[in-house]
TrEMBL record:
CDD domains per the UniProt record, alphabetical: PheRS_beta_core (cd00769), tRNA_bind_bactPheRS (cd02796)
PANTHER family associated with the record: PHENYLALANINE--TRNA LIGASE BETA SUBUNIT, PHENYLALANYL-TRNA SYNTHETASE BETA CHAIN AND LEUCINE-RICH REPEAT-CONTAINING PROTEIN 47
Subcellular compartments: Cytoplasm
Protein name listed in UniProt: Phenylalanine--tRNA ligase beta subunit
Family label: Belongs to the phenylalanyl-tRNA synthetase beta subunit family. Type 1 subfamily.
Swiss-Prot/TrEMBL keywords: Aminoacyl-tRNA synthetase, ATP-binding, Cytoplasm, Ligase, Magnesium, Metal-binding, Nucleotide-binding, Protein biosynthesis, RNA-binding, tRNA-binding
Gene that this sequence comes from: pheT
Domain B5 residues, every copy: 411-503
Keyword Acetylation belongs to the record: no
Signal peptide (residue range): none
Length: 852
């Protein structure tokens, strides 16, 4: 909404010294988003005057038409002699009044005017167009031709109101009343503590039976319709300069007098209006829903097929307008022929939701629909119609018809009961009852209180001693956004100043902090970041194509998805069942942009429908849902475990002067899973597995004991080559994904710190030969159990395969065993005995044989 400051001052007596910047600061403090203040004519310098064309000489021999003119500018040039000016425009004639800028002047944009020789003549100034003066689009696309009544030599800067300040306000959807000068003036009047000259306070004649007939078939869609008629209009009448300039400053283009007046009143009062050529209307004006297949040609020339949900204005022939959005071309006022002498003014109030849906359905956003869908003051319709009639009578010489039609659906004013101290509780500031009442009255509310409770409050020293001090607030008709006590509290708080609210840190109750789940989530994130992984947050949406690229079987549970009713993208309509598609997509994008050594991780929810979910009942709005209702709502949701995943590609260790680097491989993915498990206090069991999308020979399954049973918690390894190719990933890309919730249940809530012994460690190595299919994890588990409590750690440091030395199908696993006692230094015999016990148990369980 563009608000010229000069127009705003007509309704609020602002201090003369207040600039647009000052008003901007006041309105922003009151909660309005004033984005910019445009300084019109700030760099404009005269002389700029009204002139009359005396002679026109056509210059020949040039590529375009050129005219040499003499113009009478009175005494503005200091001599009274005609001013000689060269001009290329052709939309003026001898005797026309034009705007002339003389040498020494400066036009907007820093364009200095001086006498100059051009086309063989000397031009002493310019005859100006609206664009050259920064006036905006006036529809003429040529020289400004003024009405003949303006005197030669008059200052055109003042005449054309070229110097002004315009506030550009981004009106939020809940403040539709500010899409008018009336609404913005109300806010300015409150901010400055000045009275408001309400332009809607007009004497309006009572409705009678002589007005143009109106029939409302849908009172819900249109609860108020006012029709007024003006006859005897001068078809040659044009909009005066002041009206055109106000429309231009507000961002609208002047069209014709009748249309300009309806636009002007809309900007002034916020009530959209429409003017019909009375001679083109047949029968009564009606409001109804469109019938299936009906068509309407709107003012923009487009023929639209209407929906049965569209609200339309009709006459006896059918639709003549799209209600609240745009009028029809058949009944428009034709300014080109100049034949319209009688108009019917429509001022109606339509259902905001219906107008919003119609505008979006037809992709037809108009100034009228923007206001209706945000809420228009229904009580302003008759005043807006009267204001339009008055201006038509004044500017077009018309006569107001005595008939006044007003169809109104019965409605009661909206009231809200609010405790007098409710704004205090919301803001954490003591405003007091008087301040609350005063602020609510300033925005137009009628406030009545519980007198008995108020008197008791005064006797009790300001605190209610009997009954609850409540206010009964009747909301003004122009504020449909005020629906509950919190809305009223917001009004009090914003008018008292958001900047006056103290900064108060919340005080949590003792004993409340992060849950165990939240602590584990943070520890895992810190651990992975410390290990060189970068967190990547992705959208939780997937499509069937991503699951196909992962190579999942048709019966894979990850293909059972929860589909969104209104997805952001038709290609990704479902909630993710795994974190890998999003992470691999991020890895692919980064690799494609030149970052080839990548290690990414993500933690988040996945969504696993069980098929047992039921549609919950609709929750009530008049009370808090019961525990059973909330439980039913939770039961309708899919299972949502929290998971963590990593993906790797490129070098895991960089090469340099320190030595060779190495690429990331499946072992790094497995180690990432171990790292996550350690943060939960779990040492997972790792076994070979075959599970999409991993390589069948380089896939590890991770198990942990959950609730007394060994449970699969995730997978890690190298991705299948077909998956790498389908998703356009770097070769040998690796990945890991584990269930954090299962790890939490498997581990301990408290992470225990390691014990540090002051006694030395005894290290012994052992190399065992086993069959190739035997997992190293099983050998390690047997060694760990056999070594007993003296074993501090075990590490696999070598895997050796050689058929000549070890035999076919055999491999050698070399482990480093570290022994330490908490209370003494171990002897060689004790360490050896523990080692031998470990080897014996490994031989019994896995068939291991000491190498050599």
């Amino acid at each position: 909404m563009r608000v010229p400051l000069s127009w705003l001052r007509e309704y609020v007596d602002l201090p003369a010294t207040e600039t647009g910047r000052d008003v901007q600061a006041k309105l922003i403090s009151a909660g309005l988003e004033v984005e910019t203040v445009e300084q019109l004519g700030a760099d404009l310098k005269g002389p700029l005057v009204v002139g009359q064309v005396l002679t026109i000489e056509e210059l020949e021999g040039f590529k375009k038409p050129i005219r040499f003119c003499t113009v009478d500018v009175g005494q503005a040039n200091g001599t009274g002699e005609p001013q000689e000016i060269v001009c290329g425009a052709r939309n003026f004639a001898v005797g026309d009044k034009v705007v002339v800028v003389l040498p020494g002047a400066v036009l907007p944009g820093g364009f200095a005017i001086a006498a100059r020789k051009t086309y063989g003549k000397t031009s002493h100034g310019m005859i100006c167009s609206s664009d050259e003066l920064g006036m905006g689009d006036d529809g003429s696309h040529g020289i400004i031709v003024l009405p003949p009544e303006h005197e030669v030599g008059t200052d055109a800067i003042e005449l054309l109101q070229l110097v002004d300040e315009v506030l550009d306000i981004a009106v939020t959807p809940d403040r539709g009343y500010c899409l008018s000068l009336r609404g913005v003036a109300r806010e300015a009047a409150i901010a400055y503590g000045r009275p408001l000259l309400d332009p809607a306070l007009l004497d309006v004649p009572a409705p009678n039976a002589f007005g143009h007939p109106v029939q409302i078939a849908d009172p819900f869609g249109c609860d108020r319709f006012t029709a007024r008629t003006v006859t005897g209009l001068d078809p040659e009448a044009r909009s005066p300069i002041w009206l055109q300039r106000r429309l231009q400053k507000a961002g609208m283009r002047p069209i014709s007098l009748a249309v300009d007046i309806t636009n002007y009143v809309m900007l002034e009062l916020g009530q959209p209006l429409h003017a019909y050529d009375r001679s083109r209307i047949e029968g009564a004006i009606g409001v109804r829903r469109a019938e299936r297949g009906e068509k309407l040609t709107t003012l923009d020339g487009a023929t639209r097929t209407l929906s049965t949900d569209d609200l339309v204005i009709t006459d006896d022939r059918g639709p003549i307008g799209l209600a609240g959005v745009m009028g029809g071309a058949h009944t428009e006022i034709d300014d080109t022929e100049g034949t319209t002498t009688e108009v019917v003014i429509e001022a109606a109030h339509f259902d905001p939701v219906s107008i919003a849906r119609t505008a979006r359905r037809h992709k037809l956003s108009s100034e009228a629909s923007r206001r209706f869908e945000r809420g228009v003051d229904p009580q302003a319709a008759s005043a807006a119609a009267q204001r339009t009639v008055d201006l038509l009578v004044l500017l077009a010489g018309g006569t107001a018809d005595a008939g006044v039609t007003e169809v109104v659906a019965p409605s009661a004013p909206r009231t809200i009961t609010i405790p007098a101290d409710h704004p205090d509780k919301v803001a954490g500031v003591t405003y007091g009852r008087e301040t609350v009442v005063r602020r609510l009255q300033q925005i137009g509310c009628d406030v009545q209180g519980n007198a008995a409770a108020w008197n008791a409050s005064l006797r009790g020293g300001g605190r209610a001693t009997g009954g609850k001090d409540e206010l009964i607030v009747t909301v003004p008709s122009w504020r449909p956004d005020l629906t509950d006590p919190n809305d009223l509290a917001e009004e009090v708080i914003r008018l008292e100043g958001y900047e006056n609210l103290p900064s108060t840190l919340p005080r949590p109750l003792p004993g409340h902090g992060l849950t165990d789940r939240q602590r584990l989530h943070r520890r895992v994130g810190r651990a992975l970041a410390g290990a060189g992984y970068v967190e990547a947050l992705n959208y939780p949406f997937i499509g069937e194509a991503a699951l196909d690229q992962l190579g999942l079987d048709a019966d894979d549970p990850r293909r059972t998805v929860a589909t969104l009713v209104n997805p952001l993208s038709d290609e990704e309509p479902a909630l993710r069942t795994t974190l890998l598609p999003g992470l691999l997509g991020a890895l692919r994008r980064n690799d494609g942009r030149g970052s080839h050594d990548l290690a990414l991780f993500e933690t988040g929810l996945v969504f696993r429908p069980t098929g047992q979910e039921e549609i919950p009942a609709r929750l009530p709005a008049d009370r808090r849902p019961t525990g059973e209702e909330l439980a039913a709502l939770d039961a309708a949701l899919p299972h949502q475990p929290r998971r963590v995943a990593v993906v790797l590609a490129g070098a895991r260790e960089q090469a340099g002067w320190w030595g060779k680097g190495r690429p990331s491989d499946w072992a790094d993915a497995v180690e990432a899973a171990r790292l996550v498990a350690r943060e939960a206090g779990v040492e997972p069991t790792v076994r070979a597995d075959q599970h999409a999308p991993w390589h069948p020979g380089r896939c590890a399954a991770l198990y942990a004991e959950v609730d007394g049973a060994e449970t699969l918690v995730g997978h890690a390894g190298e991705l299948h080559p077909r998956v790498v190719k389908a998703m356009h990933l770097p070769e040998r890309t690796c990945a890991m994904e584990v269930d954090l919730d299962l790890l939490q249940r498997a581990g301990e809530a408290l992470v225990r710190a390691p014990r540090i012994s002051t006694f030395p460690v005894a290290t012994q190595d052992v190399a065992l030969v086993v069959d190739k299919p035997v997992p190293a994890a099983e050998v390690e588990a047997a060694l760990r159990e056999g070594a007993g409590e003296l074993l501090e750690s075990i590490r696999l440091f070598d895997v050796y395969e050689n058929a000549e030395q070890l035999g076919d199908g055999r491999k050698s696993l070399a482990y480093a065993l570290r022994f330490r006692a908490a209370d003494r230094t171990l002897t060689v015999d004790e360490a050896t005995a523990a080692r031998e016990a470990a080897v014996a148990l490994a031989a019994e369980r896995t068939g291991a044989v000491l190498r050599g």
